[in-house]
Amino acid sequence: MMHLRPLLSKCRNLFRNDRVEAELEREIRAHLALLEDDFLQIGMSADEAHLAARRAYGGVEQAKQMHRDERSILWLEQLRQDIRYAIRQFSKSPGFAITVILTMALGIGANTAIFTLVHTILMRSRFIALAIHIKTAASPMDWKTTMETSIFSPTRITGMFASLPRSLSS
User: Fold this and answer.
1) Which of these, 1, 64, 5, lies nearest to 29 by C-alpha position?
2) What's the predicted TM-score (pTM) here?
3) 36, 78, 113, 133: most buried by Cβ count inside 10 Å?
4) Crossing angle for the helix pair 60-71 and 46-57, nearest 10 degrees?
């Protein structure tokens, strides 16, 4: 349960980013004001105290970025930003968006169909034949004969690469 709470908090912060940013800004201003008051009590002028408080606190933007990295799942936040950017760009040119989406759908569909066909014809039929040979092998001698004639036998695998030039095969 202890590990789940920070994860849920990070996911919740993805959707209420503006509110969390306002809280962060308010908290940093409060820290700077407290430091400034401390320096004013020491006897510095208002401008000197302001500059000294900023120096003592360190980089405000670096502190904000460290807080942002800590409070969210960084890759998920970047993915959300990229998706929002893509939607904005696609809404500016819908013709291009439709062309891209259809091209990707056609390419993914063609790849799936080709690889399914290759798997069914070349790979699956050989594995089924090998499984039948293995299942029907009754004795260790039959097993040896089956392995020597299978597609995975060392002599067949070596024979596949015999046509390659000597420099590539060794």
Assistant:
1) 64
2) 0.42
3) 36
4) 40
Contact 161, 169 (CB under 8 A): yes
Pick from 169, 128, 126: nearest CA to 151: 126
C-alpha 145/C-alpha 137 separation (Å) is 9
Tokens describing residue 56:
């003592």
How far is CA 150 from each of CA 43, 121, 153, rounded to the nearest angstrom? 91, 17, 6
Q: What is the pLDDT of residues 50-108, one digit of tens each?
A: 888 888 888 888 888 887 777 777 777 788 889 999 999 999 999 999 999 999 999 99
pLDDT at 20: 79
For 51, 71, 149, the CA distances from 24, given in Å and listed in that order, are 20, 11, 71
CA dihedral of residues 100, 103, 104, 107 (deg, nearest 10) = -160
Contact assessment for residue 49 and residue 36, using Cβ atoms and an 8 Å cutoff: yes
DSSP-assigned letters across all residues of 59-108: -HHHHHHHHHHHHS-HHHHHHHHHHHHHHHHHHH-HHHHHHHHHHHHHHH
Separation between Cα atoms, residue 132 and residue 126, nearest integer Å: 10
